[in-house]
Write a structure and sequence with these properties.
Layout (H helix, E strand, L loop, with lengths): L14 E2 L2 E2 L4 H10 L2 H29 L8 H9 L4 H24 L6 H29 L6 H13 L4 H25 L12 H34 L8 H9 L4 H25 L5
Antiparallel strand pairs: 1-2
């Protein structure tokens, strides 16, 4: 007669190729949310919202290239939208969709199962920062809808000044600048290698070609802008001058200051427009299970 198992009556932990995987109520809840059709639709709307935001930024960068006095970053885009008819309603819609997109990326960081330890760590580092950024931008949109008028450039300079007051502030700020520049290099690499195709189902025919071109131009341009932002932050750390640090608006100003700067700024703006259109298309073609 077989010997009864001491585990009789107890639920067994599912076994993966890498050993036992302990059930987690939090991870289970994350997977259920991930599979929710309404949430998936809202996450796709988040891509569209991100595309609209980049279209606004691209337009502001071009306007600044032609001499306009505007903030060519996310806060400038939100303030411009707030001044439009039904601007508050549009800002609330963007806020909800961007926060949903951020939540989706956070789910992608923690919900996937059957991953090795190192693949899970890589997944977290790849997805979680994106999720936090989208949530933060969504909250900024909500704050502008409530009447706030933030200036990201001034906020970046104030934050840099505070960090530089620390004993190791220069090292911390320099590390942040290198990280931002590294993200920018990643965007350029994705654009040149067209590796964004792993996140998007490319349609056949001319539509697929157009989507690829938009992706290449958009990713490379945004990457270059982020590299400039990172370099400005590193310069601020090395020179201990927080006014040098800044965001996209500071990057635009740096581009305009070089020879043929207005033309280059306009090209950067067109690149952001391309990225915006690509991201709007991504709302339709995104691989939400990737």
């Amino acid at each position: 007669m077989p010997t009864p198992s001491i585990a009789t009556g107890l639920s067994r932990a599912p076994v993966s190729a890498y050993g036992f995987e302990v059930p987690s109520s939090a991870r289970t809840a994350a997977r259920e949310a991930e599979a929710n059709p309404a949430f998936r639709v809202t996450a796709r709307a988040g891509y569209a919202a991100n595309g609209i935001l980049h279209l606004l930024i691209g337009g502001l960068v071009i306007a600044v290239g032609f001499g306009a006095q505007e903030d060519s970053d996310q806060t400038g885009a939100f303030r411009a939208l707030a001044a439009a008819p039904l601007g508050a309603a549009a800002l609330w819609a963007l806020a909800i969709w961007l926060v949903a997109l951020g939540a989706w990326h956070l789910l992608q960081a923690f919900a996937p199962r059957h991953l090795t330890v190192w693949r899970r760590i890589g997944r977290i580092f790849a997805e979680a920062p994106q999720g936090l950024v989208f949530v933060a931008i969504g909250l900024v949109s909500a704050s502008v809808a409530l009447g706030a008028r933030p200036h990201a450039e001034q906020a970046a300079e104030d934050l840099s000044e505070g960090v530089l007051s620390w004993p190791i502030g220069g090292f911390v700020l320099g590390t942040v600048g290198l990280a931002v520049a590294g993200v920018g290099i990643g965007f350029v690499w994705m654009g040149l290698r067209r590796s964004f195709h792993s996140k998007v189902r490319t349609p056949d025919g001319p539509a697929g070609v157009a989507l690829t071109v938009l992706g290449v131009v958009g990713f490379v341009t945004k990457g270059v802008a982020l590299i400039i932002v990172g370099v400005l932050v590193v310069v601020a750390a090395v020179t201990v001058e927080p006014d040098t640090a800044g965001g996209l608006d500071g990057a635009t100003s740096a581009v305009i200051a070089v020879p043929a700067g207005p033309l280059l700024a306009s090209l950067v703006g067109l690149g952001f427009l391309a990225y915006g259109v690509f991201t709007i298309f991504r709302a339709r073609y995104a691989r939400l299970d990737a």
